Amino acid sequence: MNGGSMRLTMLASPKPFTGYIGIIQRNAITSWTRLYPRPEIVLFGEDAGTADLCLELGLTHRPAVQRNDRGTPLLNDVLAQGTRLATQGPMCFINADIILMNDFARAVDRVASEKKSFLMIGQRTDLDMTAPIAFDDPGWPESLRSALTAGGRLHGEDGIDYFVFTQGIFDPVPPLLVGRAAIDNWLVFRARARWRTVIDATAAVTAVHQNHDYSHHPEGRAGVYAGDEAQTNLQLAGGLDHLFWINDRTHRLTTDSLRLDLQWKQLRRHWDRLPVLVPHAVRPIVLLLQMLQRGIGAGLRMTGLRTAQH
Q: Which CATH architecture has domain 9-260?
């Protein structure tokens, strides 16, 4: 990227490569190897098939990763190991079921050339897909885009599956549990709390999420999003106020430009979020100003000088 001066390092902690989960993970990870320029790809863990895929595709394998007593990997160790390996450019923490194409590489290059410190995220497009992709066919990206047109669905702003970031913006990282709720939301919060640029690249990047069930967790979807480990993540994240989403962005990236998001709705969201972003000593002042603003707004509505905002 940037004429070869930087190299993206991608970090993922895949599930065992068994059944259709193995197929969709192989689809995703192989697609990353087709990005240009090719990133450094690091897979963590010793689950079935991980070492074999790393050997086959020429990936970096880090079998040893810190885990909790249930064997769930810890984010702080994944990012710490990734930081030691990533010496030439930004990093990307990504779910192992996300297929990427070269619009992703172009987006990273564009952002890295304009911003010194940033977090880039974006919405995904959900697609039912259980068959291997024929990567030997040079037309596979076009075939995939045709499938997306026919059956893809853009996911809401509550789902975040890739995080491209410059080193150090999250430090220190708590021992959040990979693959459980709140981890993605905390990453966005932390970048915003550090007053870094948070870029929504949805309009520039097609990130394909291959639909799957939650059989990898004993309690299924409920266990992933509301179980004990999800509650642990929520506590480590600092509570509900620290759960940020794609719509907490500061900038939007399109195929043409990278710009501040100055829509009124977005500015209002930043104002509402401000109390958890400012230093504790300043928070009472911000809360007071918000209370006064609400009071003035209510008064204006009562007099008919201002209509209710929906």
A: Alpha-Beta Complex (3.90)
pLDDT in tens, 160-181: 999 999 999 999 999 999 999 9
Pairing between β-strand 251-253 and β-strand 118-121 as defined by DSSP bridges: unpaired
- The sign of the dihedral angle between the CA atoms of 3, 249, 78, 57 is negative
Q: How far is the C-alpha of 28 from the C-alpha of 99, rounded, in Å? A: 4
> What is the number of residues in the chain?
310
Round to whole Å and give the CA distance between 252 and 156: 16
pLDDT band at 268 (very low <50, low <70, confident <90, very high): very high
Number of neighbours of residue 13 by Cβ within 10 angstroms: 24
Q: Is 56 exposed, middle or buried (0-12, 13-18, 19+ CB in 10 A)?
A: exposed
Q: Mark 145-181 as b/e (b = at least 16 C-beta within 10 Å).
A: eeebeeebeebebebbbbbbbbbebbeebbebbbbbb
In 10 A of CB 278, how many CB atoms? Answer: 15
- Cis preceding-peptide flag for 37 (omega within 30 of 0): yes
Q: What is the pLDDT of residues 9-20, one digit of tens each?
A: 999 999 999 999
Residue 283 CB burial class (10 angstroms; 0-12, 13-18, ≥19):
middle
Q: Which contiguous run of DSSP H or E holds residue 237? A: helix 228-237
Q: Which residues of 85-100 are buried (b: 16+ CB within 10 A; e: fewer)?
A: ebeebbbbbbbbbbbb
With bands split at pLDDT 50, 70 and 90, how would you rate the model's confidence at 298?
confident
